[in-house]
């Protein structure tokens, strides 16, 4: 009843609470100390869930964090993968180098990410290191960029010894240069960065070819070497191929840098088509493919760079030949398009293009299945260059196909010169949006 | 078998551990060693595996493992960790440090 009577048990209660509280605090303190000392192996949360933290793992995690901080500061990209190639950790530098956030790569298999033609090489290095056949290995491979193209990296591969499980560490940096002998270009534009370097390199590589070509010409005309004629012819063919690949590379770089120099002129597109037919005759014959010209356009005078237009048509024709089976026909048709445009279509009865691949055909180094690449022996730059050049001349180039096995049509639309007025070169980089034209124009 | 060697009866401990986790195993071993050394005749160790009985740990306000609670003699006292520091364990649990067999 009286307040005094009540106060004392209340005080007692309070004192008891204070003791409990102090005790709990002491326990918490104790828990914290044990935790930091690595002497705790499970935590129970207020819902009764138990979280196991093995001290070994905990200290490993601490080490890992420390290591990660160190690695993130490094200029090289450091990737730790497990025995199966799964990425366990990825340093922050990967964002600057490849555009990916580390989180996007962790958990994925390195072997599923890298450019597939480099897989054997990469796996060999990985295998040798993890099996202990080699202490370290160095391997070059193409790693995708976030935007979809690739970048060539060089990685030092080593084993992590003192971790609980065996891991392999890749320390990767971008390739700064390529030995001329290794110019078997795999993927894309940015991979060969800086573009400028590539332009210089391809120029430098082409220059020494000229005297060799001249020398072979000389030998071919010299009767004393008649017996060697087939060999000389073979050398000549390969040199020509090499020269073409290199000039492809130069063009490719120019397009990439928007530095294609054009000499726009009024010219007859039909003449260019006939000329391209002429220079491809032997190739058509070798492939046993017939070319039919159906030049129906009433007027065919366009505003273009004659050499570049030649190159566009030549690339399209060569591409058609490349994917045509013997006995089939390629046709080049022209017609008058709307609004003073000339439509040129190169149609083949070849292997065709799957709808989902249509948007990709103009990407550099894109060439059907990778296995086709060796068979067709080129860099896969032809269509990329053709599109870049068509666009630089104010035209468009689109691809159409009803699917695998149904052949393909490449439609080049140029401005007739009646429209005249000097056109500023359009943005020459290939883009997917240009290809949004109906894929099945049936 | 033999009589308790202290007046208040047996020393009773309850060890909360997490299965075979390293610190838990170590704590168990250390606790047994301490008991054998200091109270060879009169100790009992109860084991609560929080992986099997998490709610029991919760009910008894155990936050982490390993935790050992001295239930008897009163007052109830506890210490967390793998019990590798014997002096510290005895001090924290309010046990007579000089007591030897």
- The strand order across the widest sheet of chain A is 4-3-7-6-5
**3D shape of chain A:** elongated
Apparent shape of chain B: globular
Low-confidence stretches of chain B: 1-7
Structural class of chain A: alpha+beta
Features:
heterodimer; A: 442 residues; 5-stranded antiparallel beta sheet; 5-stranded mixed beta sheet; 13 helices; 20% strand; disordered C terminus; B: 101 residues; alpha+beta; Glutaredoxin; 5 strands; 30% helix; disordered N terminus
Describe this structure in words.
The complex is a heterodimer of chains A (about 450) and B (about 100). Chain A is α+β, with helices and mostly antiparallel strands and about 450 residues long. Helix content of chain A is about 40%, strand content about 20%. In chain A, α7 runs antiparallel to α9 and α11 runs antiparallel to α13. Chain A is elongated and about 110 Å long. The model of chain A is unreliable at about 1-5, about 175-195, about 370-375 and about 420-440 (pLDDT under 50). Chain B is α+β, with helices and mostly antiparallel strands. Chain B has helices at about 20-40, 55-60, 85-90, and strands spanning about 10-15, 45-50, 65, 65-70, 75-80. Chain B starts with 10 loop residues before the first strand and ends in a 9-residue tail after the last helix. Chains A and B meet through α1 and β1 of A and α1, α2, β3 and β5 of B.
Structure, briefly:
With 442 residues, chain A is of the alpha+beta class. Helix content of chain A is 42%, strand content 20%.
């Amino acid at each position: 009843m009286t307040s005094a009577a009540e106060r004392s048990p209340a005080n007692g209660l309070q004192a008891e609470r204070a003791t409990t509280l102090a005790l709990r605090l002491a326990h918490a303190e104790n828990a914290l100390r044990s935790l930091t000392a690595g002497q705790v192996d499970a935590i129970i949360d207020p819902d009764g869930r138990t979280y196991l933290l093995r001290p070994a793992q905990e200290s490993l995690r601490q080490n890992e964090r420390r290591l990660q901080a160190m690695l993130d500061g490094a200029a090289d990209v450091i990737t730790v993968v497990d025995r199966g190639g799964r990425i366990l950790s990825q340093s922050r530098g990967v964002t600057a180098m490849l555009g990916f956030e580390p989180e996007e790569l962790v958990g994925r298999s390195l072997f599923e990410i890298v450019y597939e033609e480099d897989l054997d090489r990469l796996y060999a290095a990985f295998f040798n290191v993890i099996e202990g056949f080699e202490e370290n290995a160095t391997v070059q491979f193409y790693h995708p960029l976030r935007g979809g193209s690739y970048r060539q990296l060089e990685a030092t591969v080593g084993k992590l010894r003192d971790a609980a499980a065996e891991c392999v560490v890749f320390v990767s940096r971008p390739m700064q240069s390529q030995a001329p002998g290794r110019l078997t270009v795999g993927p894309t534009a940015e991979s060969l960065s800086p573009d400028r370097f590539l332009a210089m390199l391809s120029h430098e590589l082409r220059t020494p070819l000229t005297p060799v070509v001249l020398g072979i010409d000389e030998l071919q005309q010299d009767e004393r070497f008649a017996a060697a004629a087939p060999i000389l012819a073979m050398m000549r063919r390969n040199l020509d191929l090499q020269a073409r690949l290199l000039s492809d590379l130069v063009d490719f770089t120019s397009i990439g840098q928007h530095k294609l120099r054009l000499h726009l002129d009024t010219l007859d597109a039909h003449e260019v088509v006939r000329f391209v037919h002429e220079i491809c005759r032997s190739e058509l014959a070798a492939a046993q493919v017939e070319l039919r010209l159906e030049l129906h356009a009433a007027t065919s005078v366009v505003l273009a760079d004659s050499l570049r237009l030649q190159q566009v048509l030549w690339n399209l024709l060569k591409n058609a030949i490349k994917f045509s089976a013997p006995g089939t026909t390629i046709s080049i048709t022209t017609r008058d398009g709307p609004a003073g445009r000339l439509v040129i279509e190169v149609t083949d009865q070849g292997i065709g293009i799957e709808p989902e691949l249509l948007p990709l055909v103009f990407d550099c180094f894109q060439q059907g299945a990778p296995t086709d690449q060796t068979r067709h022996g080129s860099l896969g730059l032809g269509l990329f260059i053709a599109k870049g050049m068509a666009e630089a001349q104010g035209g468009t180039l689109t691809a159409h196909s009803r699917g695998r096995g149904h052949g393909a049509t490449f439609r080049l639309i140029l401005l007739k010169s009646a429209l005249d007025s000097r056109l500023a070169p359009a943005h020459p980089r290939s883009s997917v949006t240009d290809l949004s034209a109906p894929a099945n124009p049936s | 078998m033999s009589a308790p060697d202290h007046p208040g009866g047996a020393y009773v401990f309850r060890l909360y551990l997490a299965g075979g986790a390293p610190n838990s195993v170590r704590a168990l071993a250390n606790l047994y060693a301490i008991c054998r050394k200091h109270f060879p005749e009169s100790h009992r160790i109860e084991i609560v595996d929080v992986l099997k009985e998490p709610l029991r740990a919760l009910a008894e306000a155990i936050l982490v493992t390993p935790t050992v609670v001295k239930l008897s003699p009163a007052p109830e006292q506890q210490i967390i960790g793998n019990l590798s520091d014997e002096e510290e364990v005895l001090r924290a649990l309010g046990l007579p440090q000089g007591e030897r067999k």
